[in-house]
Task: inverse folding
């Protein structure tokens, strides 16, 4: 019984760390969200914080995973949640518009994903699988739209899925260098070229 109680406390502390980390990064940015800062925010030493995750890299992987979970609840099809094909274009535009409001996470994702391109990096599998799943679900959603007659049958869903994530990643990098780049507007333009007009009224809470 004592072991079960200790395990439950450990899980709760881990959840507290991740939720606090999301707040710190959103407030202060990635560059200021050091292990020391995160540890101080939850009343732990740096070693105590990493005890729950193993390494700094794994900590930030779990932070990104938690952010994805929140975004899935808010933006559905755009981040890999299986569901209706109702407005995938609008979901992507709303997601990218939201990203522009949390530059700390854009910095974290861009830098970390670049570093993780090396196969030996601790986060390599996370990003590889994240891209694969997101592309597959996006392609499946686009295929549904083709079956409904809402997307040209001459378009390749797999290639479109790869292109939209390449577009978003590239826009995020350019936006970090030039905040005047309107990422959401360019993503909307992409979908209009494809033949899907985004419905972008309102942003879901997440």
Result:
């Amino acid at each position: 019984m004592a072991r079960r109680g200790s395990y439950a406390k450990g899980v709760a502390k881990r959840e507290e760390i991740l939720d606090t980390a999301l707040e710190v990064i959103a407030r202060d940015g990635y560059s200021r969200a050091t292990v020391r800062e995160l540890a101080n925010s939850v009343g732990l030493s740096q070693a105590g914080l990493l005890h729950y995750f193993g390494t700094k890299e794994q900590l930030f992987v779990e932070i990104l995973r938690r952010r994805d979970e929140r975004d899935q609840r808010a933006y559905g099809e755009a981040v890999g949640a299986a569901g209706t094909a109702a407005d995938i274009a609008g979901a992507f535009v709303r997601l990218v518009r939201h990203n522009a409001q949390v530059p700390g996470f854009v910095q974290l994702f861009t830098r970390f994903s670049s570093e993780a391109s090396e196969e030996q990096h601790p986060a390599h599998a996370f990003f590889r699988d994240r891209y694969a799943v997101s592309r597959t679900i996006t392609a499946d959603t686009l295929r549904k739209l083709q079956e409904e007659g809402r997307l040209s049958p001459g378009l390749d869903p797999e290639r479109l899925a790869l292109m939209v994530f390449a577009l978003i990643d590239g826009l995020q990098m350019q936006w970090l260098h030039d905040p005047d780049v309107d990422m959401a507007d360019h993503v909307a333009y992409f979908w209009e070229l494809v033949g899907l007009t985004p419905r972008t009224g309102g942003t879901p809470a997440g």
Remarks:
- The first helix runs from residue 2 to 28.
- The two ends are 36 Å apart (CA to CA).
- The CA atoms of residues 7 and 141 lie 39 Å apart.
